[in-house]
Design brief:
Elements lengths: L7 E6 L14 H4 L7 H17 L3 E4 H4 L4 H7 L12 E3 L4 E3 L11 H11 L3 E4 L11 E4 L3 E6 L5 H11 L6 E6 L11 E5 L2 E4 L9 E5 L6 E3 L1 H7 L3 E4 L2 H5 L6 E4 L3 E5 L3 H9 L3 E5 L16 E5 L1
Parallel strand pairs: 1-2, 4-5, 7-8, 10-13, 15-16
Antiparallel strand pairs: 1-17, 3-4, 6-7, 8-11, 9-10, 11-12, 14-15
């Protein structure tokens, strides 16, 4: 991963199918869905999202196509409704991929399917977050080309961020930022997103509670800094948003061309208009059905090549 805001060239995605039928009134907690879904409607909205990525010139590698001759993997996926959210299962850096460690029992082991896909694609696996360590890809955000931020939240613990830090600090990043989030927060990509080198969207109140730890290659002790102060030091212009806009997943956008284009949900028009005022045209898709699984366009893409 060169950055979180470069030209998105290739991603791994998963078009959901019959596994969505596993989401019932009795399994909502296990699979983190708000309600059972209409499988055909969800798939239709997903197809519209896929088409939007194609229109933006992004090559989408479908997980079931990569693993088409792996009957064991295909059989497993048919029971895993969260597989659609490929971002959480792995993060790809310059040297290769790190398999994440999902927190929900309904996602345990899903990362292994991404591992099989990486093997087929010739992408080295640098390591994995193994239990009792937890960390999900929605909690990992590159800031610029020299910093990796990872959130300690309801889905990640300090062991998880430490494990990732030991893999990437000094190799794929000069700095590593541990970002503790308040209770109830799932991932940092619901409250913060880098749009360009010095432009972001951020839910400021989330980051006013706990100081972060900024680790630097070659230094034994971290520096403590509030997240918003870190952004100020980096010269960021911050587009802020409120609680309602956060609930509309306004931060869950994916940059497809640096400084030019992005894809996001349509539920926060004010924030989208502010993004466009900075020269980034944002194509919106309906989140009415897709959001029932508590993920957006960012969650549904695992970038494997960013230019």
């Amino acid at each position: 991963m060169r950055s979180g805001y470069g030209d998105l060239k290739r991603v791994i995605m998963h078009r959901p199918g019959e596994e969505l039928g596993k989401v019932t009134a009795n399994t909502l907690t296990e699979f983190n869905f708000d309600s059972p879904v209409d499988v055909e409607a969800f798939a239709a909205d997903y197809d519209a999202l896929l088409d939007t990525f194609h229109q933006h010139g992004v090559e989408t590698l479908l997980l079931t196509d990569i693993l088409a001759d792996d009957d064991d993997a295909l059989g497993y996926i048919r029971h895993r409704p969260n597989m659609t959210y490929t971002r959480d299962l792995a993060t790809v850096f310059k040297r290769g991929a790190v398999l994440m460690g999902p927190h929900l029992r309904g996602r345990w082991g899903d990362q292994a399917m991404l591992g099989r896909a990486f093997k087929r694609l010739g992408i080295p696996v640098l390591g994995a977050i193994e239990q009792p360590d937890f960390l999900e890809g929605g909690g990992v955000i590159p800031i610029g080309e020299d910093t990796v931020a990872a959130s300690i939240c309801d889905r990640a613990n300090e062991n998880g961020t430490r494990a990732l830090r030991e893999i990437v600090l000094g190799n794929d990043a000069q700095y590593f930022l541990d970002v503790p989030l308040p209770f109830g927060e799932i991932h940092i990509d619901g409250t913060f997103m880098v749009l360009d080198e010095q432009l972001c969207v951020v839910h400021a109140p989330t980051f006013e509670v706990f100081p972060c730890r900024l680790y630097e290659t070659g230094k034994s002790e971290p520096r403590h800094i509030m997240f918003l102060d870190f952004l100020a030091e980096r010269g960021f212009t911050c587009i802020t948003f409120d609680d309602d806009e956060r609930d509309a997943m306004c931060a869950n956008v994916t940059i497809t061309r640096r400084g030019q284009s992005a894809i996001g949900f349509a539920g926060a028009p004010r924030v989208n208009a502010e993004i466009e005022s900075h020269g980034i045209a944002i194509t919106t898709v309906s989140g009415e059905t897709l959001a029932l699984g508590n993920g957006g366009p960012h969650c549904m893409t695992c970038p494997v090549l960013v230019g």
